[in-house]
Amino acid sequence: MNLTIKNLHVAIEGKEIIKGISLDVSAGSVHAIMGPNGSGKSTLAQILMGNPNYKFHPPIGGSNFKFQVGKTDMKNLRPHERAKTGLFLAFQNPLSIPGVSVANFLKTAYQSLHKPTTHNPQPTTHLANPALSVWDFNEKLVNEAHYLNLPREFLKRAVNDGFSGGEKKKLEMLQALVLKPKFAIFDEIDTGLDIDALKIVAQGIVRLQKEGTGILIITHYSRLLKFVRPDYIHILIGGKIVKSGGKELASLLEKKGYAAIKSH
Fold first, then answer.
1. Do the Cβ atoms of 250 and 222 come closer than 8 Å?
2. 8, 52, 189, 207: which one has the fewest Cβ atoms less than 10 Å from its Cβ?
3. CA distance 247 to 252
4. pLDDT digits (tens, 9 = 90+) for 62-75
5. Structural contact between residues 217 and 32, judged by C-beta atoms closer than 8 angstroms
6. CA angle 1-182-33, nearest 5°?
7. Tens digits of per-residue pLDDT, 80-95?
């Protein structure tokens, strides 16, 4: 299964931001999108997940425009429908949800993504996935939190309410590990992390990759890519992918900056 994007154009208030991006992310592969501020990286993440403030620009993309997960056409699906196909976005700036605990938030999300195919109601002691009891889910949640070096008490706190920058990014990773999407987009998940937290988050990305999740990492910097080895790196400048290659591109950027790419 692939996440396929072909000839993607995005305009905001009449201004074209994304200018014909094409990507093909296969299951278990890692693609990194790098670029300077204002290049369109976060716009790409938001449009793919269905933020209503961002619109496809089909008059430019025309009949060549494609956005699919496997054989499912994603263009007209709402965000929760895209999530159910297996698409996941880790936010650059996650919002807080006062009054909703991390545990309840993740349990509700898991239930929504694993609704039964029959109309028979599930017993209240079980989640929507009949193979996973509430007890089993809670145990799984605690284990995944421990994997990210998060204490059990963290799961009782309100979602992102009073969280540090590192805790917010770890919660995004915890969601990905629990929900196990087919394709995960990480929008600058490395921003604001110290070296220890960065290694933990990178460890989670590598694990998802090994379990078959296709990964799209959006980042300014190469430091995360020292721990997560991407199969492909794409340089996004001015709304266009101007160069694609392997890990050598990250080394070039670290040494010479984006000016080196512009001059090629």
1. yes
2. 52
3. 9
4. 678 999 999 999 99
5. yes
6. 90
7. 999 999 999 999 889 9
